[in-house]
Amino acid sequence: MSQPVLPSITGKSTKQINILLVNPNGTSFMTEACLRSLEDSLPPYCTVTGFTSPHPAPSAIEGHMDAVLSAAAAIRAIIPIAHNYDAFLVACFSAHPLINALREELTGPVIGIMEASFYTARMLGARLGVVATSGRSKIMHEDAIRLYGFEGYSVGCEATGLGVLELETQPKDKVLGLMAETARKLVQDKGADCITLGCAGMTEMKAKCEEVVGTKEGAAQVIDGVAVGVQLLIALVREGHHTAKGGLYRSSAEGRKARGQDWI
């Protein structure tokens, strides 16, 4: 029996897309690790530029105070250069205040790596789980899961017990071992079929987690919010989408002008 001939189309867009990958903390090696992780998947005509928040941004974001200070440092430095970019990825695995601040201030699409991970996990599986760093981040991630409306699709979070910077400073074998065990618990003990990496600093540890949870065998997926966040932004830009300005994200610049405020 002959196979039916199905209609198809091959893409030909050469539209150049420029994305700013924003690391809200002040530690540049995390920014560089994020960029390295994109080398094999970034399509032609797309450029991702890394931004590390300047002083006095905290060196890591491990609580609410860190998040607020990092957002203030980042946005003041981003606004003067924002016109060079089509979209913005906030590379902090949290409901970071910088995400909505940029949505108010800019028109280009803005995505945080946490929400990018959650939306992707919801499409690929039935239950998501988060590999967190510390016990505190575990609590904050579980709060964010509720905030984003994914509580009904989540098995929760498991913590490695590491600090954010310890992902780089501790021996690699130790870090990978803790990551692997945490991912295993989420899949085998809690029933997750999609694992999200709960820190931008984990992006180069995806392969180890995939090995443990059986990604090659089709058992579970491991999602890196940096990688999928970039791809989601590319799709939004190619389709001509912008942040809607008729509601919550109406221009903050216009609001300041109406108040007679000429500073940020």
Automatic annotation (TrEMBL):
Signal peptide: none
Protein name: Hydantoin racemase
Stated family: Belongs to the HyuE racemase family.
GO molecular function, one term: amino-acid racemase activity
PANTHER family (UniProt xref): CN HYDROLASE DOMAIN-CONTAINING PROTEIN, PROTEIN DCG1
Cited Gene3D superfamilies: 3.40.50.12500
Pfam families (alphabetical): Asp_Glu_race
Phylogenetic lineage: Eukaryota, Fungi, Dikarya, Ascomycota, Pezizomycotina
Domain of life: Eukaryota
InterPro entries: Asp/Glu/hydantoin_racemase (IPR015942), Hydantoin_racemase-like (IPR052186), Iso_Racemase_Enz_sf (IPR053714)
